[in-house]
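Quick start: read one record
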Amino acid sequence: MAEIQIRAFIASLVAVRRAEERYEVLLMKRTQSLAGEWCQVAGKIEDGETAWQTALRELSEETGLKPNAFYSADTCEQFYEADRDAITIAPVFVAFVDNTAEVVLNHEHSEFRWVSFEEAADMVAFGGQRRVLRWIEQEFIEREPSKHLSIDHL
């Protein structure tokens, strides 16, 4: 019987800030794989890292940002990769950052924007990204996140 491989080798993170009367999400335009597409922070888990450590490292490397509060989003982004005939599952994390913090992009992205959740959902390419954004808005903005999801290893 043929099987589809399930891979879990990346972590995903949504950076959020409070700006005036709304919360905003950070999206960045990719320059390499999926070039030209808007996305959240994501990257490969390195040997010896936990998924949450990867998310924090990638946030720092890709944006220069440090979170004020950091959570497991209690969900995973998942997608099928036809070229590999594999399903990829990525744990998602949420980082709340200061609204005055400066974003410094690395070579993986050409530009960034802080946008509303609604705008972000219109900008991203994939349904999985939109589902993650809706989940984070519902579970971390519209309601107080569970204290059990907080990761205090900053």
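The first helix runs from residue 51 to 63.
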